[in-house]
TrEMBL record:
CDD domains xref list: GT20_TPS
MF-aspect GO terms: alpha,alpha-trehalose-phosphate synthase (UDP-forming) activity
UniProt protein name: Trehalose-6-phosphate synthase
Swiss-Prot/TrEMBL catalytic activity: D-glucose 6-phosphate + UDP-alpha-D-glucose = alpha,alpha-trehalose 6-phosphate + UDP + H(+)
Taxonomy of the source species: Bacteria, Pseudomonadati, Pseudomonadota, Alphaproteobacteria, Hyphomicrobiales
Purpose of the protein: Probably involved in the osmoprotection via the biosynthesis of trehalose. Catalyzes the transfer of glucose from UDP-alpha-D-glucose (UDP-Glc) to D-glucose 6-phosphate (Glc-6-P) to form trehalose-6-phosphate. Acts with retention of the anomeric configuration of the UDP-sugar donor.
Amino acid sequence: MSRLIIVSNRVSVPDNKGAAAAGGLAVALQAALAERGGVWMGWSGKSSGDIEPEPLVLTQDGNITYALTDLTQTDVEEYYQGFANRVLWPICHYRLDLAEYGRKEMASYFRVNRFFAHRLAPLLEPEDTIWVHDYHLIPLAAELREMGFKNRIGFFLHIPWPPADVLFTMPVHEEIMRGLSSYDLLGFQTKYDLENFAGCLKREGMGVENSPGHFSAHGHNFRGGAYSIGIETAAFAAFARKAAAHSVVRKARQSIEGRDLIIGVDRLDYSKGITQRIDAFERFITNNPAHQRRVTYLQITPKSRSEVPEYEAMQHAVAEQAGRVNGAIGTVDWVPIRYINRSISRPVLAGLYRLAKVGLVTPLRDGMNLVAKEYVAAQDPDDPGVLVLSRFAGAARELKGALLVNPYDVDDTANALTRGINMPLEERRERWRGMMDHLLENDVSRWCDVFLADLRAE
Ligand code: GDG
């Protein structure tokens, strides 16, 4: 079996906290690497200031080599905070209004990809299979091809892919499409993303789809498919069962004093629909006075990308909104929304999912959304909670037992909350069983195996 080389913007170097603490994707990729032997290369997360980064720092763990590089401060600002997170991220999440184009940032994005290719090159052997992850590194294969590498190279996009009318607002969309066309296999989260990609290729005659999933563009033949990412379902379910006894989870249970718990868990990001969700919760309470003082909504929202102005602004907006709603509908002995603006440990998170009667997952646009899957996996089979899920999350294509909502429609989400909170046990069990069976079968190891088998197939 040929070696596997994974390249992603950030690398999960194992620590001593154990598999569950690391999260499903890191665990699955580490398992794939351990099975085949190989390298995981990416950015260390550190800046080298204004001097050229030192050579790659290599760490050996069994037959896996972790290869990390620093980036200059300019590249951190222009490539990562700039083009990746202020152009590609908003565009792929349909937020044309938030995209900030700058020539320097665009140039830096391509320059850093070339830099990655040059750092990776000495580690590569002819038979290696290369798997590149996510929107930060779209041009990497093109750079490697330019250097003469003939290896099989696959790419998986964790976020949505937009339709042509959205993508084409981006000045460098052709270079980006050319970059994607240099891979042998492109993996998207859902078939809608794949269809959008095919539509982008066709729109300006950049390429053709010869047969479903088989493309020719920019002088290269390649394939594309939908590979919906999963979680480590069985392990997470066992983890949540144990976590119910965790002291913090026990305290949380006592503190809600028999009220029903609604939980939301999201990185602080405008794609996650947090402000619309808080509005929907307020509407749910005002529409259902009987539920006043009988529910608690816990929103866990670790800070993310705080250096990017849109994220910093959002931090203030969400905190203010949660405060306003608590002021408007709270009572002297009831705080309706508990808003936590930092990360909590994975065992506590698992235990809280299990405690919650409703998992409220309402992104405005999301590649997949693993929180939805974790919430389902964490439930007690005898008394499962209800998943309220945005129809614009990739997960909605799979989780048929969820109550699907349009997150832009506050009443729709508020009504789903009412239905979820009041849902009879039999219906909850039936909906949950279908979703859980699907998640057990389509877990993250399967996702990894299927993608790699397809990448290796001629
Ligand atoms: C991207 C795509 C796609 C969150 N808060 C805490 C915490 N988390 C963990 C969750 C979950 C992960 O972070 C978030 O994953 P999501 O899938 O929901 O969202 P993104 O971060 O936007 O991920 C997404 C994903 O890539 C994979 O392909 O599904 O669409 O946007 O695992 O549990 N973990 C801990 N404490 C927290 O406070 N420990």
